[in-house]
Amino acid sequence: MFMAGRNQLIVVLGMHRSGTSVIARGLKALGVELGPNLLPPMANVNERGFWEDQDFQAIDVELMELSGLDWYDNCPGGRFRADDARLKPHAARAVQLLKDRLAAYPCFAIKDPRMAVLLPFWRSVFEQVECDVSYVVALRNPKSVVESVCRRDGFGAAKVYYLWLEHVLPSLLETTGHPC
Q: How many helices (H) and strands (E) would you count in the chain?
């Protein structure tokens, strides 16, 4: 339930190559702000842009590194612990970053495919910031995602099917009961 006068946060979740960039770009076209520090387009990868704030992405990369993970590791949810004490400084930084963005942009969206795996951490951040949170989950045919990731990164299909599950399942399970 959204409350009048409160800032709105939209979180785009999904597996890499599943359409999260298209969704974020669509939100931007509808007037939702994505931040001042967007990741630039990359030739032969995402030529129209990723539409994600590099400051949030940097936090996600650091969280995964602290947990001994990278985006392409299988079973990241089984190894990521949102209650890890080493994450506290990152949580404080994430809260402040989100507060700053919402102060500048009353309707703001964030997108980084890593957030699907890191959602327990981010949900604790969202709880510390006064705003209404809603989620958009990108669901693309897993076969199409697998073909795209395999072509881009050279991974085997079985690995990418597992990665797809490890991004989609938490996106759906962790948003149950929330506007989605």
A: 7, 3
User: Given the structure tokens 């506290």, which residue do they identify?
Assistant: 88
Is 113 in a helix, a strand, or coil?
coil
Distance in angstroms (rounded) separating the CA atoms of residues 56 and 5: 25
Distance CA 87, CA 66 (A): 8
Distance CA 15, CA 32 (A): 21
Residues 164, 82: Cα–Cα separation, whole Å:
21
Output the pLDDT for position 96.
Answer: 98
Residues 30-36: contacts with CB under 8 Å, at least 24 apart: 31/107, 32/107, 32/108, 32/109, 33/101, 33/104, 33/105, 33/107, 33/108, 33/109, 34/108, 34/109, 34/110, 34/111, 35/101, 35/105, 35/108, 35/110, 36/104
Q: SS3 breakdown of the chain: % helix, strand, coil, rounded to 5? A: 50, 10, 40
pTM of the model: 0.91
pLDDT tens, residue by residue, 82-131: 788 888 899 999 999 999 999 999 999 999 999 998 999 999 999 999 89
